[in-house]
Request: fold
Amino acid sequence: MADYKGIKGFTIQTIAGDPPAPIIGQVWYNTTSNVLKGYTSAPGAWAAGNALNTPRRSAAGAGTQTAGLAIAGAPSGGLTTNVEEYDGTSWTEVSNITGVARYDFFNAGTQTAALIAGGNDHGVVDLDICEIYDGSSWSETANLGTGRYRGAQGIGLQTAALAVGGNLPGGIQNLNEEFNGTSWTELADPTTPRYNQAAGGTSTAAIVMGGQAPATVGATETWNGTSWTEVNDMNTGRVIAGSALRAPNSTSLLAGGYPVSALTESWNGTCWTEVGDLGTGRQNVGACGIGTSALLWGGQAGPPPATTDATEEWSDPLLAVKTFTSS
Reply:
């Protein structure tokens, strides 16, 4: 049987203490405590947070894990204009959106500078309304060039956002529009037309994944500000999942989705890896944050129109010194 030296090419280091800057996979014998140690990472995990005040599905998100927004959406049996802020501990109701109650819209930005556009109000499914939030109130701004709903959520900032894909009564829309804080402009279309996809990143470094084309797909594309590139697919194709909105296209996190799922996948810029499951499997979820520190709330944990108020927080793997043997 091969020994450590045969595998690594050198013997285990002996040191009086722990190395000042160990690397992942490093192993050493601590002569002070007389134990074998190594440097490794613990798996990332979801932890329960405090519940939303208004359970809902298909809401928009903005911000970070400790400064997030849950915007409008669909409670059981209706729609809402309600908006809530998350401070890392609890949700507080703040100013409602000014337009009609709606869901399945585009979104971008932070807790104090958010944007929503398009959506469905149960009457008009191709709304072009666009609103911005300044941390205390909402106001209407320039409309989308093409109204639509169920597009990629969460790309960019209030003054530099993308609205990608979506759906209309006439079919899937493969449009890509950019908002510069004043107006919307059409840019290069994605390779795969789809709707109900997840997304994240910035207006010059975005990622779009999953969705319906019209069948469920796991296709992933990245955007460099000029063109789209097909990259490795997700392990499990799905729709209406939650994604870490503020993550660049080199890192991301995707969780939940339809069919009702607790699966979570992490993107490292090259491929997707399955990581820790959600505590509550669900679809039509709201989300925000970054790939290493995400926030997810609401959605459907069963058949519609049931909704949930559950909130979960994602913590990325933590690097740590681990003791392998006792003295």
Observations:
- The longest strand covers residues 35-41.
